[in-house]
Amino acid sequence: MNGTAVQPVDPLRRPTALGVLATQRLLADYRAHVTSLAVSRDAKRLRERSAEQLIALHPDLSAWLRRPTPARLADLRRSRAWPLLCWAAVHAGLPLDVDLILAKRQGDLYVCWASEHASDTDRLNGVGATLGWSAGWTRQINVVAHALVCLHSGGKPLSELVDEDFTSCVAALLAAPSLSATLRSHSTARVFSLHQACYWPCQRWLAPPEQVVSELHGPTSA
């Protein structure tokens, strides 16, 4: 047969009526958020148009999130709709995966999460000072790892994280197809330190971070 064979579409990536309806509701809420921003009319219009462009191409964001990360990054470059996803992840529970979050490599999402959880941010700053972390490392844990683990957990605040949230996040990092070995290693180290920070002030019987690493990678040599 002549011509290129048509590849079947993964059913999980097909838009559904419920997914489209949920996306339209999310877009309406995002428009209300943009209207409330203290920015110029042109800036508001650009944000709305970017969001509308992405959703016009992918009317069900839940289905879109199941696309390969390179395809999603290309969509975001064309539409410039990353602000929509940042807002939706922090305020509307849109489940961004760690592969997309880290492959995008923009700090807006981290800063947005931290600003919405200022008390947790203050706690982590205090723990970092107590543990003798440098200002740079404290910021990486407080902003990057803090948002990454909490968003991966489904949007839990810091006080609700449990051991499984950390082990699940590390497992997702190890399985993320778009991450370089260096980024994967650095991200895992940040999650390890965040677990340590949570173990320190909460006085909860969380598994020590060393146990989490041992379970994932096997015992380390003495």
Plain-language structure description:
The protein is mainly alpha-helical. It has two domains: 11-94; 115-217. 69% of the residues lie in helices and 0% in strands. It contains twelve helices and no strands. The chain has helices at residues 17-36, 41-57, 61-64, 69-79, 82-91, 98-104, 108-116, 118-131, 135-152, 163-175, 181-202, 209-217. α8 (118-131) packs across α9 and α10 (163-175) runs antiparallel to α11 (181-202). The protein is globular. Residues 203-222 have low confidence and may be disordered.
Biggest pleated-sheet summary: none
Mean pLDDT: 87
- Termini separation comes to 62 Å
Described by the principal axes of the CA atoms, the overall outline is globular
The radius of gyration is 19 Å
SSE string, helices as H and strands as E: HHHHHHHHHHHH
Structural class: mainly alpha
Q: How many structural units, i.e. domains? A: 2
Helix content: 55-70%
Strand content: under 5%
Count of DSSP strands? 0
Poorly predicted ranges (pLDDT <50, ≥5 residues)? Answer: 203-222
What is the number of helical segments per DSSP (H or I, 4+ residues)? 12
